[in-house]
Amino acid sequence: MHYTVTRGWTATYSAPIEVRVGEKLVLSGKEDEWDGHRWLWARSEAGGEGWVPDSLPVSSEGTTVARETYSAMELTCIPGELVTGLRQTHGWILCRRETGQVGWVPRSCLAKYQEELVREVF
């Protein structure tokens, strides 16, 4: 799916948390609700910290691990820019620019690319 950036976004963190599937996570207990979705503050085995969607951690027998590989890398973008959406979660869309750069953009900053809307109608 292709999107047009309707509102610019500047990446929030210079060193976002990144985890591999099965990697241990330490949850701080700090939570936030953003756009109706629950986020948890976590620390990776490598020591990186940041917000993760509440669907990422899974706990068993006192150990919490990442359900999937995840990077909180955000994509700085400007209005009018075209991006390709790769996946969505918790009010964010993982986008790729034509240059290959990948990162998360809030859903509220994007609109379905108009040309695709026209094709869907016909």
Explain how this protein is built.
The structure is a single chain. The protein has 122 residues and is mainly β. The protein has two domains: 2-12 and 73-121, SH3 type barrels; 18-71. Helices cover 7% and strands 49% of the residues. It has one helix and twelve strands; from the N terminus they run E-E-E-E-E-E-E-E-E-E-E-E-H. It has one helix at residues 114-121, and strands spanning 2-5, 18-19, 25-34, 37-44, 49-53, 57-60, 63-66, 70-71, 82-89, 92-96, 102-106, 110-112. A five-stranded antiparallel sheet has the order 11-10-9-1-12. Strand 9 (82-89) and strand 10 form a beta hairpin. The chain is elongated. The protein starts with a strand and ends with a helix. The mean pLDDT is 92. This is SH3 domain-containing protein. Residues 59-115 form the SH3 domain. InterPro entries: SH3-like_dom_sf, SH3_domain. It comes from Algicella marina. Keywords: SH3 domain.
Could you write a compact summary of the structure shown?
InterPro entries: SH3-like_dom_sf, SH3_domain. The chain is mainly beta. It has one helix at residues 114-121, and strands at 2-5, 18-19, 25-34, 37-44, 49-53, 57-60, 63-66, 70-71, 82-89, 92-96, 102-106, 110-112.
Q: Describe the largest sheet.
A: 5 strands, antiparallel
Low-confidence runs = none
Q: What name does CATH use for the topology of the largest domain?
A: SH3 type barrels
> Tell me, what is the CATH class of the largest domain?
Mainly Beta
The amount of beta strand, in percent, is over 45%
Q: State the helicity in percent bands.
A: under 10%
Q: What is the radius of gyration? A: 16 Å
Number of strands: 12
Instruction: Give the class from helix and strand content and strand pairing.
Output: mainly beta
- Strand order within the widest beta sheet: 11-10-9-1-12
Helices and strands, in order, run as EEEEEEEEEEEEH
CATH architecture of the largest domain: Roll
User: How large is the count of helical segments?
Assistant: 1
Shape: elongated
- Tell me the domain tally: 2
Pfam families: SH3_2
Domain SH3: 59-115
Protein name: SH3 domain-containing protein
Organism: Algicella marina
